[in-house]
Amino acid sequence: MGINSIIDLIEILRGENGCPWDRKQTPKTIAVYLLEEVYELVDAIESGDTSSICEELGDVLFHILFLSGLFREMGHFDIKDVVDLNIEKMTRRHPHVFGNERLDSIEEVRVRWHQIKKQEKSRAKKASILDSVPAGFPALMRAYRVSERAAKTGFDWNDISGVMQKVEEEWSEFKAVLERENRTPTDKDLLALEFGDVLFTLVNVARFAHIHPETALRNSTKKFEKRFKYMEKMIAKSRRNIESVSQEEKNELWEETKANLTVS
Fold first, then answer.
1. Among 57, 70, 123, 139, which is least packed, fewest CB within 10 Å?
2. Apex CA 105: angle with CA 103 and CA 110, to 5°?
3. Is residue 226 domain-shared with residue 192, that is, in the same domain?
């Protein structure tokens, strides 16, 4: 069986004698499920479980084909148009492979890629270079891409030390608002804004350090989860629940967990 088998399956599901749920789906509703499936695929990839990766890849593929099928039903395009357009674009963006250009390093490839992409977007007549960053991106990913696009225009720090200095400035501004006595509702809004400035600047630190902030935060969160669950198990062995344990003992158990548990 191949991709055509999935397309045939979707047509049956969407057909007169198919599934009521599948028949009522729209591009907007399927987009939500596609996003969920992509996150599940990312989790599977990070777990290293190849059987789960295979399964989640199938789920993502199913939703992509479902979406293309919806647009085919509406008379816009079909999966062949999607494939042809993508091949054309990928060929155009690799002139060092399919053309006569010579690019010898990854950085040269990255710069040329963005040049070509910028030319493509200029033909789309967007008002700003930042308009190419989807508004629906997760906040950290969007901050990373927005700052990356701005940096491509030359609007950037000279090096990472300048960004680190900016982090200190933003942190001081955040603390100044935080330490105000009798904060007003306006101060609360300002506090949130100042904290956002800290996060945005830290995203730029990650960019200079060639670290993707979304991946870094996801990995740190998983590390915390693994350690916290390990601590819960230690407490459960003593026939207690974590809420009944004093903060002092939790701190001791946490340090013990960090010493004993290897987190990759």
1. 123
2. 80
3. no
